[in-house]
Amino acid sequence: DAGVIQSPRHEVTEMGQEVTLRCKPISGHDYLFWYRQTMMRGLELLIYFNNNVPIDDSGMPEDRFSAKMPNASFSTLKIQPSEPRDSAVYFCASRRGGNTEAFFGQGTRLTVV
Amino acid sequence: AQSVTQLDSHVSVSEGTPVLLRCNYSSSYSPSLFWYVQHPNKGLQLLLKYTSAATLVKGINGFEAEFKKSETSFHLTKPSAHMSDAAEYFCVPDNNAGNMLTFGGGTRLMVKP
Asked: What are the pLDDT digits (tens) for A6-64?
Protein backbone atom coordinates (compact mmCIF):
# COMPACT_ATOMS: atom_id res chain seq x y z
CA ASP A 1 0.00 0.00 0.00
CA ALA A 2 1.23 3.50 -0.81
CA GLY A 3 0.16 4.85 2.55
CA VAL A 4 -2.07 7.84 3.16
CA ILE A 5 -1.92 10.13 0.16
CA GLN A 6 -2.61 13.83 0.39
CA SER A 7 -2.83 16.39 -2.37
CA PRO A 8 -1.69 18.93 -3.10
CA ARG A 9 1.57 18.97 -1.09
CA HIS A 10 1.68 22.74 -1.25
CA GLU A 11 -1.06 25.28 -1.87
CA VAL A 12 -0.73 29.03 -2.10
CA THR A 13 -3.95 30.95 -2.50
CA GLU A 14 -5.31 34.43 -2.07
CA MET A 15 -7.53 35.42 0.78
CA GLY A 16 -11.18 34.83 -0.02
CA GLN A 17 -10.55 31.94 -2.39
CA GLU A 18 -11.90 28.45 -1.88
CA VAL A 19 -9.35 25.78 -1.00
CA THR A 20 -9.89 22.03 -1.21
CA LEU A 21 -7.51 19.55 0.36
CA ARG A 22 -7.71 15.89 -0.56
CA CYS A 23 -6.92 12.65 1.19
CA LYS A 24 -6.85 9.01 0.21
CA PRO A 25 -6.67 6.78 3.29
CA ILE A 26 -5.14 3.33 3.46
CA SER A 27 -7.48 0.68 2.12
CA GLY A 28 -9.34 -1.15 4.87
CA HIS A 29 -8.95 1.58 7.45
CA ASP A 30 -12.24 2.52 9.09
CA TYR A 31 -11.17 5.80 10.65
CA LEU A 32 -10.00 8.98 8.97
CA PHE A 33 -8.72 12.06 10.76
CA TRP A 34 -7.98 15.62 9.68
CA TYR A 35 -5.43 17.59 11.72
CA ARG A 36 -4.05 21.10 11.46
CA GLN A 37 -0.55 21.98 12.68
CA THR A 38 0.74 25.45 13.46
CA MET A 39 3.57 26.76 15.58
CA MET A 40 1.15 28.52 17.90
CA ARG A 41 -1.41 25.78 18.48
CA GLY A 42 0.48 22.60 17.70
CA LEU A 43 -1.37 19.63 16.21
CA GLU A 44 -5.14 20.06 16.44
CA LEU A 45 -7.72 17.43 15.59
CA LEU A 46 -10.30 19.05 13.33
CA ILE A 47 -12.68 16.21 12.52
CA TYR A 48 -12.73 12.44 12.22
CA PHE A 49 -14.84 9.91 10.37
CA ASN A 50 -15.76 6.31 11.07
CA ASN A 51 -16.95 4.29 8.09
CA ASN A 52 -17.37 7.53 6.12
CA VAL A 53 -19.60 9.11 8.78
CA PRO A 54 -18.41 12.24 10.63
CA ILE A 55 -18.20 11.37 14.32
CA ASP A 56 -16.71 14.46 15.95
CA ASP A 57 -16.27 17.81 14.25
CA SER A 58 -15.88 19.85 17.41
CA GLY A 59 -12.38 20.83 16.35
CA MET A 60 -13.48 22.52 13.15
CA PRO A 61 -12.71 26.15 13.84
CA GLU A 62 -15.48 27.88 11.92
CA ASP A 63 -18.29 27.38 9.45
CA ARG A 64 -15.81 28.25 6.73
CA PHE A 65 -14.39 24.77 7.22
CA SER A 66 -16.19 21.68 5.97
CA ALA A 67 -15.16 18.07 5.45
CA LYS A 68 -16.69 15.22 3.52
CA MET A 69 -16.03 11.57 2.99
CA PRO A 70 -18.16 10.40 0.06
CA ASN A 71 -16.63 6.93 0.08
CA ALA A 72 -14.10 4.80 1.92
CA SER A 73 -11.21 5.87 -0.28
CA PHE A 74 -11.56 9.64 -0.44
CA SER A 75 -12.04 12.64 1.81
CA THR A 76 -11.89 16.39 1.33
CA LEU A 77 -11.38 19.33 3.63
CA LYS A 78 -12.67 22.58 2.23
CA ILE A 79 -12.12 26.13 3.38
CA GLN A 80 -14.38 28.77 1.91
CA PRO A 81 -13.52 31.60 2.04
CA SER A 82 -9.90 31.20 3.09
CA GLU A 83 -8.15 33.65 5.39
CA PRO A 84 -4.44 34.24 6.16
CA ARG A 85 -4.88 32.72 9.64
CA ASP A 86 -5.78 29.42 7.98
CA SER A 87 -2.16 29.09 6.87
CA ALA A 88 -0.90 25.84 8.36
CA VAL A 89 0.08 22.29 7.54
CA TYR A 90 -2.96 20.04 7.26
CA PHE A 91 -2.52 16.33 7.89
CA CYS A 92 -4.78 13.45 7.10
CA ALA A 93 -4.43 10.15 8.96
CA SER A 94 -6.20 6.80 8.93
CA ARG A 95 -6.35 3.74 11.18
CA ARG A 96 -8.26 0.49 11.50
CA GLY A 97 -9.61 1.13 14.98
CA GLY A 98 -8.71 1.33 18.66
CA ASN A 99 -5.20 0.31 19.76
CA THR A 100 -3.95 0.35 16.18
CA GLU A 101 -1.42 2.64 14.60
CA ALA A 102 -2.61 5.77 12.83
CA PHE A 103 -0.78 6.37 9.58
CA PHE A 104 -0.23 9.95 8.52
CA GLY A 105 0.06 11.51 5.12
CA GLN A 106 2.86 13.89 4.26
CA GLY A 107 0.63 16.88 4.79
CA THR A 108 -0.52 19.84 2.74
CA ARG A 109 1.22 23.11 3.45
CA LEU A 110 -1.38 25.83 2.94
CA THR A 111 -0.40 29.47 2.62
CA VAL A 112 -3.13 32.07 2.32
CA VAL A 113 -1.87 35.49 1.27
CA ALA B 1 -10.83 10.17 29.52
CA GLN B 2 -7.15 9.61 29.29
CA SER B 3 -4.64 12.42 29.14
CA VAL B 4 -0.87 12.72 29.15
CA THR B 5 1.68 15.29 30.22
CA GLN B 6 5.01 15.60 28.46
CA LEU B 7 7.14 17.17 31.11
CA ASP B 8 9.68 18.84 28.84
CA SER B 9 8.91 20.96 25.82
CA HIS B 10 12.60 20.88 24.75
CA VAL B 11 15.39 18.42 25.45
CA SER B 12 18.96 18.86 24.29
CA VAL B 13 21.54 16.05 24.34
CA SER B 14 24.93 15.44 22.82
CA GLU B 15 25.38 12.84 20.14
CA GLY B 16 26.19 9.48 21.69
CA THR B 17 24.59 10.24 25.06
CA PRO B 18 21.34 8.74 26.36
CA VAL B 19 17.95 10.17 25.53
CA LEU B 20 15.09 10.43 28.03
CA LEU B 21 11.76 11.97 27.01
CA ARG B 22 9.23 11.96 29.80
CA CYS B 23 5.53 11.23 29.60
CA ASN B 24 3.08 10.80 32.46
CA TYR B 25 -0.48 9.69 31.95
CA SER B 26 -3.62 10.28 33.93
CA SER B 27 -6.10 7.48 33.87
CA SER B 28 -8.03 5.31 36.29
CA TYR B 29 -7.14 2.26 34.23
CA SER B 30 -4.26 1.10 32.13
CA PRO B 31 -4.40 3.07 28.90
CA SER B 32 -3.14 2.40 25.43
CA LEU B 33 -0.28 4.74 24.69
CA PHE B 34 1.72 5.64 21.60
CA TRP B 35 4.92 7.52 20.91
CA TYR B 36 5.03 9.30 17.55
CA VAL B 37 7.94 11.13 15.96
CA GLN B 38 7.84 14.00 13.50
CA HIS B 39 10.98 14.98 11.68
CA PRO B 40 11.19 18.53 10.26
CA ASN B 41 8.78 19.10 7.40
CA LYS B 42 7.57 15.52 7.54
CA GLY B 43 4.45 13.68 8.62
CA LEU B 44 4.18 11.74 11.85
CA GLN B 45 5.45 8.21 12.25
CA LEU B 46 4.76 5.66 14.96
CA LEU B 47 7.79 4.86 17.14
CA LEU B 48 6.14 2.34 19.42
CA LYS B 49 2.91 1.54 21.20
CA TYR B 50 1.82 0.07 24.53
CA THR B 51 -1.36 -1.98 24.61
CA SER B 52 -0.87 -3.93 27.89
CA ALA B 53 0.81 -6.93 26.29
CA ALA B 54 4.23 -6.10 27.73
CA THR B 55 5.45 -3.27 29.95
CA LEU B 56 8.75 -2.82 28.08
CA VAL B 57 8.08 -1.88 24.50
CA LYS B 58 10.74 -1.73 21.83
CA GLY B 59 10.27 0.53 18.85
CA ILE B 60 12.05 1.60 15.74
CA ASN B 61 15.46 3.27 15.55
CA GLY B 62 16.61 1.87 18.89
CA PHE B 63 13.95 3.59 21.00
CA GLU B 64 12.08 1.88 23.79
CA ALA B 65 9.61 2.81 26.49
CA GLU B 66 8.61 1.22 29.77
CA PHE B 67 5.09 1.41 31.11
CA LYS B 68 5.22 1.90 34.89
CA LYS B 69 1.82 1.80 36.50
CA SER B 70 3.15 2.71 39.94
CA GLU B 71 4.57 5.93 38.51
CA THR B 72 1.89 6.44 35.82
CA SER B 73 4.71 6.97 33.38
CA PHE B 74 5.64 5.90 29.86
CA HIS B 75 9.03 7.52 29.29
CA LEU B 76 10.83 7.14 25.97
CA THR B 77 14.51 6.24 26.05
CA LYS B 78 17.42 5.51 23.75
CA PRO B 79 20.91 4.52 24.92
CA SER B 80 22.81 6.64 22.43
CA ALA B 81 21.48 9.66 20.53
CA HIS B 82 22.16 10.12 16.86
CA MET B 83 21.97 13.35 14.92
CA SER B 84 19.08 11.93 12.93
CA ASP B 85 17.01 11.63 16.14
CA ALA B 86 16.50 15.40 16.20
CA ALA B 87 12.74 15.74 15.86
CA GLU B 88 9.48 16.40 17.69
CA TYR B 89 8.17 13.54 19.81
CA PHE B 90 4.57 13.07 20.90
CA CYS B 91 3.20 10.83 23.64
CA VAL B 92 -0.41 10.08 22.72
CA PRO B 93 -3.15 8.29 24.65
CA ASP B 94 -5.68 6.20 22.80
CA ASN B 95 -9.20 7.37 23.48
CA ASN B 96 -10.96 4.04 23.62
CA ALA B 97 -14.34 5.72 23.77
CA GLY B 98 -14.09 7.35 20.40
CA ASN B 99 -10.93 6.03 18.80
CA MET B 100 -9.61 9.58 18.55
CA LEU B 101 -5.95 10.39 18.79
CA THR B 102 -5.39 13.77 20.42
CA PHE B 103 -1.90 15.22 20.41
CA GLY B 104 -0.42 17.47 23.07
CA GLY B 105 2.47 19.87 22.80
CA GLY B 106 5.21 17.34 22.20
CA THR B 107 8.89 17.42 23.12
CA ARG B 108 11.45 18.81 20.73
CA LEU B 109 14.67 16.83 20.86
CA MET B 110 17.86 18.58 19.80
CA VAL B 111 21.05 16.60 19.30
CA LYS B 112 24.37 18.44 19.47
CA PRO B 113 27.45 17.16 17.65
From this structure: 999 999 999 999 999 999 999 999 999 999 999 888 899 999 999 999 999 999 988 99
* Total CB pairs under 8 A between chain A and B: 52
B34-78 pLDDT per residue, tens: 999 999 988 899 999 988 778 899 999 999 999 998 888 999 999
Do the Cβ atoms of A76 and A47 come closer than 8 Å?
Answer: no
Closest by CA position to A31, among listed A93, A76, A78: A93
* Chain B contact residues (CB < 8 Å to A): 32, 34, 42-46, 49, 51, 90, 94, 96, 98-106
Task: Using an 8 Å CB-CB cutoff, list chain A residues near B101.
Answer: 33, 45, 93, 95, 102
Report the side by side order of strands in the sheet with A19-24.
A5-7, A19-24, A74-79, A65-71
Q: What is the pLDDT of residue B77?
A: 97
| One-letter identity of residue A7 | S
Q: Kindly determine whether residue B100 and residue A33, on different chains, have CB atoms separated by under 8 Å.
A: yes
- Kindly report the nearest CA distance between residue B39 and chain A, in angstroms: 11
| Phi/psi at A75 (5° precision) | -145, 150
Supply the DSSP string of B19-72, one letter for each residue.
EEE-EEEE-SSPPPEEEEEE-TTS-EEEEEEE-SS-SEEE-GGG-EEEEEGGGT
